Amino acid sequence: MAERQTSLLAVRKLRTDFIRNVSLELPAGACLGLHGESGSGKTLLLRAIADLDMNTGDVRLEGVSREQFTGPQWRRQVGLLPAESQWWGDVVKEHAEHWSTALLASLGFSRSVLDWETGRLSSGEKQRLALARLLANQPRVLLLDEPTANLDTGNTGMVEHMVASYLQQNQAAAIWVSHDPGQLTRVADSRAFMDQGNFRLEVD
Amino acid sequence: MELIRLSAWDLSIAAALVCLLALLSWALRLGIGRQLLIAASRSTVQLLILGMILKTLFAQTNLWLIGLMTLVMLAVAGYEVMARQQRRFQGIWGYGLGTLSMFLSSFLITLLALTVVVQVHPWYQPQYLIPLLGMLLGNTMSGIAIALDNLTRNTWEQRRNIEARLMLGHEWSQAISTIRRDALRSGLIPIINAMTTAGIVSLPGMMTGQILGGSPPMEAAKYQLMILFMIAAGSGLGSLTAIWAGSRHLFDDRQRLRLDRLARNRK
After folding, report:
1. Residue B266: inside a domain
2. Predicted TM-score of the model (pTM)
3. Which of A20, A31, B7, B18 supports an S-S bond with A174, CB 3.0-4.6 Å?
C-alpha cells in the first residue's frame, strides 16, 4: 500500500484482447519512454490506460481506483494525445474551454491562433495545438502517442521542452511513445518496450 | 355517390402496365425488372389477404383479433426498420429498438386519436383503428428507419472525431450531440415535406381514398389533416425515442464508444 501511494499512476494486470498483463508504476514527475514496432500494441496500451477500449485490470491514480471516476472524469486526469488529431469544429477556439496564453506561447503560437480555421492547419500545427488542447484540461498523466511525428527539429525541441516543464510544474507523469531512440534518451527517465502485446521494462 | 367497383379485368389493365415497365427494364438492362415484379406480386397477395382479413375483422369487432392484427403489423414494421439499416445494432437491439420506438409512438397516438379526437365507440372499432394505425406505423417506420440509419452510419464515419472528444474528457452525449441532432432532423424530413406539399403537389393517399369512396371533400380534408398531424407527432416521438436509446447504447457505462455493438456493413 505504501508503495502505491508514492506512485502517481499504478497499472496492475491490465489486459485487453491484445495487450497481455501489463503492470507499471509512474511516480510524479516521471516520464516513461515506450518503443516497439508498429502493431506491437503501444497505441492500444495507451488507449486501455485511458479506458477507451474494453479492458480488465486495476488502474489507479494516486491510489484511487479508476472506477471511482466516471469515464470522462478519468480521461480529463489521464489525457491521451493520439498520433493523429481530429478537429470537429470550424475554428481552433471551439476545441477547449480555457486556452492559456502562456501555454500557447510555449508552443510557438500567439492567441490569434484561436481564430484560425481548422481546415487550414498544417499537420505540424495540428499536432502542437492538439497538445495545447489536451493540456487545457490540466491532466495529471499524459499519454503521448508520437507527439512530434510531424514536427521539424526546432518544433520537436520546443514540444520536448514544454512537456518536461509541464511535468515538473504540475507534478504530472507521462508515457511517451516514440520511434526515435535519440528522443527517448532526451525526454524519458526510464524506458519500456512493447512486443506483440507484451510489455517489458528496460533496465540499464 | 355510388362506389364504382373494380373488376379483375380492370386490375389486369393496371398490372399490364407494370409488366410493360419490367420488360422495358429488361430491354434497357436496368436490372430492376425482377425486383419490380416481385414487389408487385407481393403487394397483390398482401393486399388481397388484408382485404379478406379486414372483412372478417369488421364483421366481428373482436378486441383480441384486432390486437393480434396490430401486433402482426408492428412486427413486420419492426423488421422493415431493421432491414433498412446499413449498420444495425447487434442482437436484440437490432430488432427491438425500432420496434419498441414504433410501438410507443404509433400505438399511443392512435389510441389518443381514437378516444379523444374521433371518439369512436367502442374505441377499437376496426374500421377506424386499423387504417389509422397502419398509416401511422407506415410513416413512423420510414422516419425511424432513416433516423437510426443516419445515427449509426454517421457514428461509424465520425468515430475518430467522437473518440477524440472522449479523450478530451467530453461526456458521451456531448461527443455525439451533432450526429444525434442530424439524425433526428433527418427522421422528420419526410413528414415535413409531405405536409409542405400536401394538397398542392400531391393529393394525400387517405384523402384520395375517401373522395373516391364518396366522402365530401371537406370531410376528407379534415381527416387528412388530422392524420398528417398525428404522423408528424408519431415520427417525432418515435425518432426521439429511437435516437435517444440508440445513441446511449453506442456507449457503455465507462462511456467508451462501442462500435462492436453494430453489425458489419452489409453490401
Report:
1. no
2. 0.87
3. A31
Domain boundary pick from B9, B28, B60: B60
**B86 shares a domain with B33:** no
Instruction: Give B134: exposed, middle or buried? Use CB within 10 Å, 0-12, 13-18, 19+.
Output: middle
Q: What is the pLDDT of residues B103-132, one digit of tens each?
A: 999 999 999 999 999 898 889 999 999 989
- Contact assignment for A72 to B161 by CB distance below 8 Å: no
Specify the number of domains making up chain B.
Answer: 2
SS3 annotation, B184-195: HHHHHHHHHHHH
Residue A51 in contact with partner chain B when CB distance is under 8 A = yes
Nearest beta carbon to residue A71 from set B161, B178, B254: B254
Q: What is the pLDDT of residues B160-209, one digit of tens each?
A: 999 999 999 999 999 999 999 999 999 999 899 988 988 887 778 888 88
Same domain, B105 and B155: yes
Residues of A within 8 A of B158 (CB-CB) are 88
